[in-house]
Amino acid sequence: MKFFIDTANLNEIREAQDxxxxxxxxxxxxxxxxxxxxxxxxxxxxxxxxxDIVDGDVSAEVIATTxxxxxxxxxxxxxxxxxxxxxxxxxxxxxxxxxxxSEKGIKTNCTxxxxxxxxxxxxxxxxxxxxxFIGRLDDISVDGVALxxxxxxxxxxxxxxxxxxxxxxxxxxxxxxxxxxxxxVMTGPLSAINALFSHPLTDIGLAKFLADHKKAGTx
Length: 219
Ligand code: E4P
Prior knowledge:
The chain is α/β, with parallel strands linked by helices. It has a single domain (about 1-215), classed as TIM Barrel, CATH 3.20.20.70. It contains 11 helices and 8 strands. The protein has an 8-stranded parallel barrel with strand order 1-2-3-4-5-6-7-8, surrounded by 7 helices. The termini are far apart. The model has no long low-confidence stretch (mean pLDDT about 95). Bound molecules: erythose-4-phosphate (E4P).
């Protein structure tokens, strides 16, 4: 399972990259705004800064919502770095744009996916990644992990190469459940990734090993 970090914060990206288990980054307009990154030039520079840190795919989302504008914006984003994946919303114009990018060999991430039907369209258009938002589904009492499982079954049935990128991850159990049902990738906050490290028995066990070692050394 690939691990992506879902942030535009450079320090968090560096921290995750330093762990040696990071496979990529996803961003969105809200995450960029949270870091105070506004204006085309600054946005482009920030994507480049992210690409320079991370060893893997970096999703950069288009703001445009019409086919021609998405193509122009996506091609410009793709020129920033080979690591850029053009993130396109799940709308009719977006599916047309994904089809276009796919024929041009530009990687895409179909975002804002909330149903199996939408995921099927993304795969048919040739998306590199499809991003079902499982946390936002859970927020409205719909089982987000069940959607990942359903999409995995459909993609297996037809051998689609589109990778399932479980997005809107909120906590470590989401990561584990997505791994169980076969998500190819998960993208989550640093807090969810860091939470995977924790187990009280690890802490107790390590403390005892170190104490016993110290005791043996004093004999
Ligand atoms: C995915 O690519 C999105 O950026 C993200 O996972 C959305 O997460 P949220 O629902 O926590 O905003």
